[in-house]
Every structure is written in structure tokens, then in C-alpha cells.
Amino acid sequence: MPSLFKIPIEYLNGIGPGKAKLFKKLGVDTVGSLLRMYPRMYEDWSRPLRIADAPRNEVCCIKATVEGAHSPAVIRKNMIVFKVDVIDGYDRMTVTFFNQRYLYDKIKDGGEYLFYGTVRRDFSLYEMTSPTVLNVGEGEKIHPVYAQTAGLTSRQIEKAVLQAIDMLPNKTNDPIPSDILEKYNLCSLDFAIRNIHFPQSADDIERAKKRFAFEELLILQLGMARLKGGRRDVLSRRLENDYSEEFYSMLPFTPTNAQKRAVKDCINDMINCPYPMNRLIQGDVGSGKTAVAAAVCYTVVKNGGQCAFMVPTEVLAQQHYKSFSDLFEDSGITVGILTGSVSAAKKREIYRKLSEGETDIIIGTHALISENVEFDRLNLVITDEQHRFGVSQRAALISKGDSPHILVMSATPIPRTLALMIYGDLDLSVLDEMPPGRRRIDTFLIDGSKRERAYNFLRKQIESGSQCYIVCPLVEQNEDMNLISAEEYVENLKETVLGEYRISLLHGKMKSSEKESVMNDFESGKTDILVSTTVIEVGINVPNATVMLIENAERFGLSQLHQLRGRVGRGNIKSYCILVSDINSKAGTERLNVMCHTNDGFKIADEDLRLRGPGDFFGSRQHGLPEIKIAEDVPVTLLEDTREAALNILGKDPMLKEKCHRGLNFETKRLFAKVGNTEQLQ
Ligand code: ADP
Ligand code: MG
């Protein structure tokens, strides 16, 4: 029998080309991938209740007999309604359906059914609206609930999965070798597949989930480790000379030892290693990553190469462009900038200069990966704040050079276990030292009742010549009623003690030219208060800003708060951060208090991982990794176990060529196929 991953989904009964298309939308094209589509949650139909025992405002399953169905009525255009009365032997309930004409033909008077929905009680009348209905017998179990798409319900997916389960061979090839299953107390693949879809109990679900989470993390790490191995086979252009000392003499400050070490690591990679540099620089906000990038660019250009520096936002591109241009003003090095908002005519000029090699260093946004961009001799690709870029975007830029060196910079401190996993394909340099003169940012947690006092504090700061940030979680009010929006906030501020100051608004939905002018005004001191969404989280540098007030602080992850807070305390004036939150749970307060007690991003990240699990650090959104489907909220111990297992396997069999690792090899390729990086996984 061929692998289920080779059998198209259309093979199953009831799935024609139309339905198959809908399945594709959900990422399912074969019977095998259908079995790997995990339920989002479960509905417990296993113990139907009596009508009178239904919990308030909660869905549940009721078993009852139909006693009279009222014919469907058209109540308005495109809206058909029909009702049935049901009885469970004690109580009577009216069930209403909208636009489900086919159900009227299916539900038989006198028949007994299961109704899954919310029971409402209106005096002595019980009602249920639009429940899911199943026949008694087939329905009384725990049902999976799948992500659905228009035209394809969870129930239809469930039917397909049932058929797919029947096609499982007697002996399923388990990609995880049996010694590992045993060592980490994991269930077999066969058990996991059957029970992730059709569990008998909550315990079964947990066992199945743990196994899939383990598998996912194991395969992720094997894949990452091999990607790194992959680039070790290619040759790159090696540099001749180290120009970092010359660069340091141009800097307005003395580099820290950590900065020097990081630069040295990079230059050593590019001079002495036969394969391209593939390095991550991790440094907390303010640790001076830009200067490291500049030093490395300088050396590459002096050796005759071109550099591309990709950043996630236009604002950041402008900022880096400015600091690079200033720094390299008299050095004969040409710096360019390319972003989406540049006019077509200008773009053509930039493209020409790049392809003819006139521009040495180009700084830009995603615009850099446009097809029209060609380089003469691209030797170095840098991406800043890398968690914003996907692996595939990085790959697109890399492909514009002939195996260029790669430098990735991240300002997100990540606990070691995770860093090794997420950046498994990169060598690591850590900037663990701050430039001198930095003072700790004093951080306070207050509730809304003290906002007035906080405003007075901001006022004092502004009076003494400083500027302030205020961060709100949303742009517009309609996104979530419970939260303060930045737009409204600006209006409200005008009524307060801060009303007399110059206030501006910055958010991600603004045009980039608007954003730029708002940022310029703030940077040059033309505005006093910048009210913003999290767009300022990434890399903005205004040393004169000394206070940040963050509204709805409970809505942010600790690492994100830390990133935000890093926008102040960038000069040598004492700086402050005020977290405003009306959260009243002990755990929530404790979490936010971590911010008040430490300024160390790595400690904060550890706390974040301990309190929230690794979900926040994962996901293609953040790291450009293959999508993690099930391992989002696993305990740290599972991360450690999978890492140990991956290292053991690769230690014995780095290319996964042994028979017992064939399944892992296959799964690794399958996972990474989605991010378009498989050519490096032989
Ligand atoms: P980040 O690591 O967050 O990107 P930046 O590169 O933006 O940090 O640097 C933050 C600030 O610190 C900048 O104003 C930069 O000029 C300054 N800086 C960087 N390195 C040093 C240093 N060694 N000594 C003094 N100031 C420095
Ligand atoms: Mg930076």
C-alpha cells in the first residue's frame, strides 16, 4: 500500500474536486495530511444531559425525542426558519433552526436525537437555537472540532477523517524510533493519530498531544540543525583583510568589549571559514547592534563587496540610513536607501546604481527582495530584528548574491533552550554588555486611578526638556471595546494637564510618508508627546525621550514590554517607564512586577517562558519557522527533552541515513517544504 501522503484526498468517499479544493485551503491535499490536521478543540457528546440539567450559558449535549415539527417558513428574503419541539421524558424544549432546510427533511417526528448547543430558559420554557444534531448511537462520544472554511464544516471533515483512519495500515511506520518512545514515555503514532481525532477521554487527548508536540519539536530541531549543515557545503567569497580598527577610529565612541567580540566573530567567519558566515547577533535593546553591523559592512566594502541591510519598517530604514550616512560621510563609501514609498523613477536609479556597483551599502525594507533588485557583487546580507522576517524572505535576499555572508540581528532576548531551537541554523554571538553610562530605567506599575498623577510626572519631565512616549494597544476603538485606542487617547489627552503640549500620533495604518514626518518631528523635538501603537517597538532611537507610559500593560507579553521600554533610556538622562493596568489578578500583577524588578532582557525572557510557555516565541509570524501546530503551550521540560533527543540522534547519524531514522528524515523534509528551504535538506 502506498504511503497515505501519496493518496490524494479525492480518494475518500464524498470528496470530489470541489471539496478537495476547500481541503487544500486548509492545507490538506492527501489522506496523510488529513490525518495530520489536528482538531482545534473537542466537543464532549459522550454524556448527554437532561434538559433541566443543562448548565447556564454553556454548550452541552441533550438527548431528546422530537414531538412535532413545524414546517419551514420564509421569514424574509434568504431566511428560512423552522422549529421542532423535543422532549426528554421530563421536560420540553423548542429548537429553532435557520436556513437549514435539509435538516427538516432529516429530522423525523418521533425520532430520538442528540442536540449540541446552549439551552436557554425563558420562565418555564426551554429553548435552543441552531444546535448541531446527530443520531443517537453514532453521536455519543467526544467529537473533534476542526478549523473550517466556507463550504466545509467540521462535521464533514470529521467524516473524512473517519474514513482516513480506516485506511491506517495495521502497522503504522512510526518516525520516532522505539527507544526514544520508551525513554520519554510517548505513545505510538497509531495511538496518537486515533486519539487526537477520536479520543475516549481527556487523558487520551493529553497523551496524543504530548506525542505530537514532541515529534514536532524534535523534527523542527533536526531540520534546523541540518539547514546549518547544508550551508556548510557551499563556498563563499572570503575576505582578505580586517578593517575593524580603522572603523573604530571613525566612531564617536569607544566600542564595548562585547561589540568588539561580535565584530571579530563575524570577520573571522568571513576571512577564515571556507563556507559563508551564518551568524546571529543577539543583543538587548540599546546594546549597540547598529555599530556592529556598520563595522562588518565597512570591512566587507573595503574588501570590495556590496552589502544589503534589510529592516522590517520604513522608519527603521530611515534611521539606519541616517546613521550610516553620517558615519561614512568622509569615507568614500556610498550608502543608499530603498523602501516601498520611493517613486518609480527614483527606484530605477537605485536599481541601476546597485547593479552597476556604484552603491556599496543599501539599506531598505522588503522592497529589497523585489525582482528588479540586482547586485554587482553582493557579499553580505544583514537582517535587523529578524523575528519580523520569514526564513523565505531572508532566502530571497540571499539568492541575489553568490552565497553571500549572512548576519542576522535580533533584539529579542530569548532563553537559551529556545534560541538553540529557533536559531538552530545560525552561529551565535551575544552582546552581553551595555555601552557605558546607561542607567537603569525605573519602572512602576500603577492602576488607572493614579493616571492623573502619572500625567503630572510626565508634565514635569517635559518641563525639564524631555519627551515622552505613550503606548496604547490599538489604533481604532472598534477593534476591541475594552481597550483604549491611540486615536481616542490623543483626543482625551487634550482635556488633561498634558493638553497644552504638542502631541502627535503614530500607528501602523498611517502612510509611510506620514509616519516619517511624525517621527522626524519627534526626533527633532518639535513634538513633546508621541502617542503610538506598538509600531515604535522596533528599533526607534530618540535619546531625548525619557518616559514611556504604557496603557493596558496586561495586554503585552513581558518580552514585548521590555522591547517597548527599550525606547527610553537611550541617552544618558535618567529614564522611567510607567505601566498602567487595571488587572486585578495576583498572577497578572506578579507578571507585570517582573518588569519593575529587572532591566535584564534575558531574565525577563526566562520569566516570560516560565509564565506563558513557548507559544509567544514560536510561529512563522515571529521567526519564519515552519508552522508549529500543536507545541505552542508545552512545558519547558519538553523543549529540553526534545533537544536532548535531537542531539543524540544527530550525534549518531548526522544525515539521518540510517534505517531507523528514515521516518524522521521524511518528516523533516515535509515540515520544511512549506518554508521553501528543502534544497538544503538532502
Ligand atoms: P540596538 O542594539 O538596540 O540596535 P543601537 O545600535 O541603536 O542599539 O545603539 C543604541 C545607542 O547607543 C545609539 O545611540 C548608539 O549610538 C549608542 N552606542 C552604541 N554603542 C555604543 C558604545 N560602545 N558607547 C556609547 N554609545 C554607544
Ligand atoms: Mg537596533
Supply the helix-strand structural class.
alpha/beta
Net shape: globular
Bound heterogens, unique: adenosine-5'-diphosphate, magnesium ion
Strand residue content: 15-25%
The CATH class assignment of the largest domain is Alpha Beta
The CATH architecture designation of the largest domain is: 3-Layer(aba) Sandwich
Mean pLDDT equals: 87
The CATH superfamily of the largest domain bears the name: P-loop containing nucleotide triphosphate hydrolases
Structure description:
- The protein has about 675 residues and is of the alpha/beta class.
- The chain folds into 5 domains: about 1-45 and about 155-170, no CATH class; about 45-140, OB fold (Dihydrolipoamide Acetyltransferase, E2P); about 170-230 and about 635-680, no CATH class; about 245-430, P-loop containing nucleotide triphosphate hydrolases (Rossmann fold, 3-Layer(aba) Sandwich); about 440-600, P-loop containing nucleotide triphosphate hydrolases (Rossmann fold).
- About 35% of the residues lie in helices and about 20% in strands.
- It has 23 helices and 22 strands.
- The strands form 4 sheets. It has a 7-stranded parallel β-sheet with strand order 12-13-11-14-15-10-16, sandwiched between helices. Strands 17-22-21-18-20-19 form a 6-stranded parallel β-sheet, with helices on both faces. It has a 5-stranded mixed beta barrel with strand order 2-4-5-7-6.
- β19, α17 (about 510-525) and β20 form a beta-alpha-beta unit.
- α6 (about 190-195) packs across α7 (about 200-230), α7 (about 200-230) packs across α22 and α7 (about 200-230) crosses α23.
- It is globular, with a radius of gyration of 29 Å.
- The chain binds adenosine-5'-diphosphate and magnesium ion.
- Magnesium ion (MG) binds near residues 289, 290, 411 and 539.
